[in-house]
Amino acid sequence: MDQTLSRGTGPEVDAADSLQPGRETIRVVLSPIGQRVLNYLSVINASGDDAEERYKEAVGAMREFAADAAAEIARMECGCRVRDYSGRWGLVYAASELHHPAALPYLRSVVMTPIPPEESADPHGFSTVAEETIVRTTAVDGVVQLAGQGHAEAIEALFGFLRMPSISIKRAAVQGLLNVRQGESLRGKIEAMLCPEERFLLDIRPLDVRRATQIDDPEADLSESGRIAQKATTPDLPGRTGCIDARATGDDSPAAGSGKEN
């Protein structure tokens, strides 16, 4: 039986879908390479004692035919619903994990595709722009890996990303350019492509958690009422008050524990 990657035809919902074979929708027949990609997607978040070994096997199977896998991943994404953010992210991440220049055209096209306007009625609770941005910054990370391997076209692609309006994409591209072997020599070119108010991106550095400022007393500047508000309280559950009172008075009889008289 052919494995298929399905594309939903019903109304879209905010909750992300997942890649599922065999749904009664538009059918995209998977090639043997596509099946390897699907196998990889199934182990991304796997757990268990053999999870790491399964992951290595799955990513190795894709990399064995990396050029074909990159093309298949692009085709598979066309079978995803627009709001299947988890599925789309997984495919972009799979392309990034190929570590092969054949994935560059696909990754670049993902980043350069304009982010659609916000569609959520409550973007603070769920934001389509945020989800689309995550997909694109994941693609940027894939290009950064290729740039780190010395691929000149990947470095040029990162410079192209500096023209995108998304500050998140620009931040990821700037950090990626600065982290390549010749990164500091690129600083002047990066700065020239950024607006003055965006040049702070050049000064962002990953912080080693061991060097982060540690707060000895988080409640030091709280008022007394603030300290009280921060304290966890015991829920007033049925029958619990009697148990607490019994412990306070030293009476641990069944009657005291249950709050009932014999």
State the end-to-end CA separation. 69 Å
Order of helices and strands: EEHHHHHHHHHHHH
Given the helix and strand composition, which structural class is it? mainly alpha
What's the average pLDDT? 80
- Report the principal-axis shape: globular
Number of strands: 2
Q: What strand line-up does the widest sheet have? A: 1-2
Largest sheet: 2 strands, antiparallel
Q: Roughly how much helix do the residues carry, as a percent range?
A: 40-55%
Uncertain runs are 1-26, 240-262
Radius of gyration: 26 Å
Per DSSP, what share of the residues sits in E-state strands of 2 or more residues? under 5%
Q: With helices defined by DSSP (H or I, 4 residues minimum), what is the helix count?
A: 12
**How many domains, in number, for the residues?**
2
Explain what this protein looks like in three dimensions.
This protein folds into 2 domains: 86 residues, no CATH class; 100 residues. It is built from 12 helices and 2 strands. Helix 5 runs antiparallel to helix 6, helix 5 runs parallel beside helix 7 and helix 6 runs antiparallel to helix 7.
Brief descriptors of the model:
single chain; 262 residues; mainly alpha; two-stranded antiparallel ribbon; 12 helices; globular; disordered N terminus
Give a nutshell description of this structure.
This protein is mostly helical.
Topology:
Elements: E1 4-7, E2 26-29, H1 32-43, H2 51-63, H3 66-77, H4 85-97, H5 104-112, H6 128-148, H7 152-161, H8 167-178, H9 187-193, H10 224-230, H11 240-249, H12 254-258
Antiparallel strand pairs: 1-2
